[in-house]
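S1.2 Input.
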Amino acid sequence: MTTRSIRKKTGERFFDAFNMLVLLALVAVTIYPLLYVLFASLSNPTELAQSRGLLLGPAGFSFEAYRKVFQNPSISTGYRNTLFYVGAGTLINMVCYSTRSATGTPTSRR
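S1.3 Output.
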């Protein structure tokens, strides 16, 4: 049994190459802002303020931004509230839906 490879036409190869370039550009445009925020958060604030152009790595290296964030008591309050709401909401939904299924009440109307 022999297998023949199907050769792509020139137009198909051009289309594939063009799609790859567009998708790579979209990936770069999507990922760079995320990397910028990460690099800026790890940078020395004075060096970051003086830097110009693209930020391709941390300008200096400092955890000062993270120290300031975690020293703020509102951050821990926010995390505690978030965990409470998620836990309480999950528990309430589990109780509501388990009682509905135990009583035979349908969960959706058809």
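S1.4 Remarks. The first helix runs from residue 10 to 41.
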